[in-house]
Fold this protein.
Amino acid sequence: MTLRQAQGEGRSLLFRRAENEALRQEMERDPRVVLLGEDVAGAAGRAAQGFVDAWGGPMGSTKGLIQQFGPDRIIDTPICEMSFIGAAVGAAMTGLRPVAELMFVNFVGVALDSVMNEGAFLRYMLGGQVSVPMVIKTAIGATGMAPENGGGTAAQHSGSMYSIFAHIPGLKCVTPSDAFTAKGLLTAAIRDDNPVVYFSHRALGGTSMDVPEEPYALPIGESRVLREGRDVSLIGIARMTSVCRDAAERLAEQGVEAEVIDLLSLSPLDEECLVNSVRRTKHAVVVDEDWPRCSIARDVAAVIADAAIGYLDGPIKTVTGAHTPVPYSGVLEAAYVPNAERVVEAALATLRD
Amino acid sequence: MAATVSETAQRTGAPDPHTLRWILEHMLLIRTFEERVAALRQSGALQGSAHLYVGQEAVAVGVCARLNRDDYVASTHRGHGHAIAKGVDTARMMAELYGRSTGTNKGKGGSMHIADTSVGMLGATGIVGAGTPLALGAALSAQKRRTRQVAVAFFGDGAMGQGTVYECLNMAAIWKLPMIFVCENNGYAESTPVEYAQSTPDLAERAAAFKMPAFVVDGQDVFDVYEHAGAAAERARNGDGPTFLECKTYRYYGHFLGDDPHRYRTAEEEAYYRGRDCVERFLAAGVLDSNDAEQIRQAAEERIDAAVRFAESSPIPDRAELTTEVYA
């Protein structure tokens, strides 16, 4: 399936059910696929007492899989990210195709060695002797719901941090932006012979759209143009893509036709898609929930500057999270996360300059 | 410490003649390889990082003597011994140290990443403790694929300070994985003595807390290692779960080639452990004819001569190799 197909086909499906469907279909298709992680089923070993599938994953996206595939393939692990992700690498080298669930991306702090020094590097270090066909599926993002009473999940459970992974050669990184791309990219990640990090934005989990029922893989390394426009390119990642769409609608009300690019893949990066768009619109705004320093936003800006600076009629703008840990307070969290208003301001600023 | 070699040999029944030859061949092949690497470095003929295994040969050889070709080994930064004992070709290993395209890893890994997955050697690693989860994953994979393969994690006393080893002990125990944890306690984590860095004199005690069979083994006695590894491999293949072997041993060289160990240990201590040398004790046990032994020693020298010739005459990598094999 291509990125241009299938919009409007199939039935309405929640983002997290689309992920579930991808996992189920790929596990049916290929007996080498196993899922492991913390609470991917939950209540492990308590079936005799009637407790099964207590959680179905922290976000509920693996719910129901244990009933179909059993504990042999849906493996609840102790809490030890370094070691179960390292074990996924070892299993991937020796004949399985594991999907390892890293509950929240921030938890990579205790697992980076397995991700980088083993998972990403082994193929190269070993002179191509092995491939490491595995997926690290992880939750990212602040919800930005902005309650005045209370807040979100704060600094250690709300990060994006994908630039850390995209920095590492040997890893591929994908960021779906809706249920359709979630199913297609997770399927592609499982079928890929490399370690692929699949970033699942928490605030997208409850969104739904039409998703084809049959299995399909979307190409890793391709971005898509979600809305065409001639005045400015708004480039979004994961949930920021919908922020870009909102901004584009507001800009249209002011007579500005914005093009929206949905990045989808951070590594490899679809430089051609970005550059072609910006050469036409002559203006670019990159929208990224992650921190600004050494970010995908600034990497994309550098790619555009390198390949299209002669076409630009204004500065490349980035709209990012603040360079702070993600705050708890709903008001502060909403201030942290980029929103359509900020994107509109940035677009108008580059059009003005 | 444990019984003498000859006593152990009597207790267990010596390995059959073929295995006895194999054991001496591989202990001498490792020692000859390592001594040659040291000499090449000393003369300036060879550059690059390497950690030598001399002194510890009985551990790798005693364990690998109990493994099949398709069993898995995850190694350490001090990995040459494990590689040779698992059947990796010494010529291709030497070529790897020379950074040549004929090396095991095409010159992209070097000493610290030597691997040959065709004989189950999953690789040395430069990160202390990091081979353990890889071996755990290989054991998990073998269990899921129902192959009766065994995975061995070699690691040192230094790795007993790393959390991942304990995480793996736990998972191997709860899932009854076909795995052998081989802790080579050579007394030093880099320059730091084990009695300073570890709270228990016998590291095997800690594994016992995970409810798996755990033994202190004389790592300078190949028969003691062979006996324990045999029982451990049998448990693993029978679905009875993991075993932990703490092999007390000693490295004769410094931590890395160029490290002077006399900055942190005495000549008397070295002499004591050299007096318990695994090769000498094997020979003293009288289980092989002395002519045979001499022949094996000669053959090892010739193999390593040939390995160096192969390495030195091998092509250097094409510069285009820089960017290949990053992705599958």
Notes: Residues 15-29 of chain A form the longest helix (15 residues).
